[in-house]
Design brief:
mainly beta, Jelly Rolls, about 270 residues, about 35% strand
Length: about 270
Amino acid sequence: MNPGKPTEGWDQIMSLPRRLRLIGPDELAIEPAAELDSLRYARTHEGPMRLPANQEIVLDDRIGGKSFELSARIDPKVFELNVLRSPGGEEVTRISFFKERGFRIRDPKLGAPIMSLVSLDTSHSSILPDVRFRAPETAPLQFADGEMLNLEVYVDRSIVEVFVNGRQCVAARVYPGREDSTGVSVVARGQDATIESLDAWKLNSIYECKSAIQLRAQHPFVRTALHWEIEVYCRSSTHLRYLRRTAFENRVELPIASSYLSRRRIRR
C-alpha cells in the first residue's frame, strides 16, 4: 500500500499476513492469518442490534480506538461502518457494503448474478491539508441467497484493512489529524438492518515480543510458535535481529523464517 501523505524517508508498507486458498474452480478465499488473534485483548461484545434506516448510531466508547479489530455479522442491503470517527464527524473513514448493487455477470455456468460491492472511502479521513485524497477502494463479491455479511476490520493507526466473508479484501492508508478520531458508528441505508453480533478487541503492539518469547519457551511446540512470532510480529530486519538476540538470552531456539511476508512499518 502506498502512502497518501508526504513524509520524510521510506514510508511503504505491506498488508497483514493473509491466508489464501482455493475454495472452488474459480474462487479464492482470502483471510487474515489466524495467528493475529494473539494480539487481541479487552474484548467487547454487542448484539443483536436493530438498526433503523438512515440513522447513524455511534457505538460504545469501548469499541474503537487507534489500533483495534472488529468482527461483525450483519443482515443488510446497504450498510455503512464508520471507523476513526471524530465526535462531530469532521473525520471519518467509511466502509460501505452494497448488496447486489454492482454489475451483472453473464456466464453460462453462473447464470447472470448481480455482484455486491464493498467500498473503503478515505475522502473524509483527515482534515490535514497535505493528505492526498483518492477515490474509494471498491471490490466486487458474489453473495449467495440468504448469505449474511461477515466483516473483519483491522485498524492500525494509519492503516485500515477490511475482509469480507473470507473472499474479498480492501485496504488503504488514512491520516486522521485529530487525536479524538477514534470512534465507530454504523448506518443502515434505505432499509432497517440487523447486526446479529459484533465483537471488538484492542490490539497489542507487535513490538511487545519479549514476554511472548519467554512464555512460549515453556510450550512443547515452541518452534512452531516462534516461527509465527517471526511471521506475525516481525516487521523489519532490525526487529528480527532483536528477536534473535532476545531468544538467545532466554536460551530459546529461534527458527529462521524463509520469507518476511508480514514485514511492515507501523508508526507508533
